Amino acid sequence: MVKICCIGAGYVGGPTMAVIALKCPDIEVVVVDISEPRIAGWNSDHLPIYEPGLDDVVRQCRGRNLSFSTEVHRHVSDADIVFVSVNTPTKTCGLGAGKAADLTYWESAARMIADVSVSDKIVVEKSTVPVKTAEAIEKILSHNTHRRHGGGGGVRYQILSNPEFLAEGTAVADLLSPDRVLIGGRNDTPAGLAAVAALRDVYARWVPPDRILTTNLWSAELSKLAANAFLAQRISSVNAISALCEATGADVAQVAHSVGKDARIGPHFLSASVGFGGSCFQKDILNLVYICECYGLPEVASYWREVIRINDYQKGRFVNRVVASMFNTVAGKKVAVLGFAFKKDTGDTRETPAIDVCKGLLGDKAAVSIYDPQVTGEQVSRDLAMNKFDWDHPRHLQPITGTDVAGQVAVAADAYEAAREAHAVCILTEWDEFRGLDYKRMFDAMHKPAFIFDGRNVVDVAKLREIGFVVYSIGKPLDDWLKDMPAVA
Ligand code: NAD
Ligand code: UDX
């Protein structure tokens, strides 16, 4: 029986291994993590992440051929294939701070593999890493093996790059039916080819052969960064056009629909928004920018950096619009924030645009009342008290200095409570439930003029204007009120 061990029981490691266990009942799959609370969560009825369909998959496999454990060394030692799915955050200090990927967690996982292994292993990069990481990991593993085993006949490792393309909120569906599975390996040696074939055999249980792509290691590593950069670039492109739509009276939804009808462009990932969030896009583009700079390609670096600049511009533009529309001040005014997660169907708040928007409103002294169906008040407080990039460095967490937002932030049990006696409502996540709210009920309980700022284009603008709201919806024609109160970009 093949045994798989995955280091890192996070948003990628947990769902990916659960689906492998589901589709390969003859393979034993163990997910290990140094975080005891995370493993306890995976072993309980309340999984540590919210992902539609995941409970069901875990329930079917846990105790059969899927387990979660903190006994990292034992399970790594026993495994034939070791996936490494640890976090690879942006560096917060030292060389490349604010851009380069921090490979501390990756390197310590690799050194641990070298320390505990007594049999040959295939080591699979699941985390998103800079190009050439596999080569570095190979060096760590082979040098340490030689030291332990006296130079000859030691443990042999094959490194594969198998980046993950799942998106949160649709992780299970993405894993069950991926657009492609990418396996990068050393295709110039028999051992390399055998390792690629072994991993391909795992996925081939449910993924059609033409969707399993094999490349060299560096192409696989770079493809992941490039794919995320292309996706984020589409969002920044449509968001840039949304600003022009507001200025000209065009409607971004109509423009995006018309543009996306071109088969060469396609309809996906063209929804204008308050900005993209999530743990991947910004981090991976910054990493790409850093790599370009390191290889002496400043023009390429600045091209991709612009994708992030437009994203920051979009979030700032939204805050400015809110403040400018409300007579240039929100000081002491209650603003309801509907949605805090970085997208619908997840409780994940990493790099959510809601953090920047809320901080902007708090900076202007608003009283913010937040409702999100999946995000706890504790999480909101943590996020609003954190400096940029700190969220993925648990050991370095520092509260923001000189800012006391405690008295300005409340967390509401539902959208109506958040909006009660508010001056404005900001919609920051596209949760389905926000489409069906009783906006008349909300309007009646709000101060007048009552404003709605829709950062996700979920509301019916005409209907809300009929109720009496002043409505702003990203990239939509402005009503007269907003035209008279221009926001500084
Ligand atoms: P995560 O923070 O949710 O999970 C990482 C886990 O690794 C944590 O639970 C942490 O405790 C554990 N860990 C860190 N060092 C460890 C060690 N030495 N031994 C054992 N456990 C250790 O991160 P994630 O969102 O699952 O992302 C993991 C990787 O996958 C990142 O490189 C990310 O860029 C990439 N990725 C993420 C997504 C996504 O949607 N979240 C999608 C594709 C790729
Ligand atoms: C992304 C990639 O899609 C996935 O392939 C990769 O493995 C990890 O990073 P994720 O961040 O989970 O996945 O979600 P995604 O659906 O890509 O959304 C990212 C952000 O972009 C969200 O904040 C979302 O709301 C926003 N977005 C997405 C838009 O603003 N407009 C769109 O048209 C699509």
TrEMBL record:
Pathway where it operates: Nucleotide-sugar biosynthesis; UDP-alpha-D-glucuronate biosynthesis; UDP-alpha-D-glucuronate from UDP-alpha-D-glucose: step 1/1
EC number(s) reported in the record: 1.1.1.22
UniProt-listed GO biological process terms: glycosaminoglycan biosynthetic process; UDP-glucuronate biosynthetic process
GO molecular function: NAD binding; UDP-glucose 6-dehydrogenase activity
Residues covered by the UDP-glucose/GDP-mannose dehydrogenase C-terminal domain: 336-461
Keyword Ribonucleoprotein recorded: no
This protein's GO CC annotations: nucleus
SMART domains assigned to the protein according to its UniProt record, in alphabetical order: UDPG_MGDP_dh_C (SM00984)
The keyword Oxidoreductase appears for this protein: yes
Assigned keywords, A-Z: NAD, Oxidoreductase
Binding site for NAD(+): 8-13, 33, 38, 86-90, 127-128, 168, 280-283, 350
Catalyzed reactions per annotation: UDP-alpha-D-glucose + 2 NAD(+) + H2O = UDP-alpha-D-glucuronate + 2 NADH + 3 H(+)
Main enzyme class: oxidoreductase
Alphabetical list of SUPFAM superfamilies matching this protein: 6-phosphogluconate dehydrogenase C-terminal domain-like (SSF48179), NAD(P)-binding Rossmann-fold domains (SSF51735), UDP-glucose/GDP-mannose dehydrogenase C-terminal domain (SSF52413)
Active site location: C280
Known role: Involved in the biosynthesis of UDP-glucuronic acid (UDP-GlcA), providing nucleotide sugars for cell-wall polymers.
UniProt family annotation: Belongs to the UDP-glucose/GDP-mannose dehydrogenase family.
Protein name as annotated: UDP-glucose 6-dehydrogenase
Organism of origin: Digitaria exilis
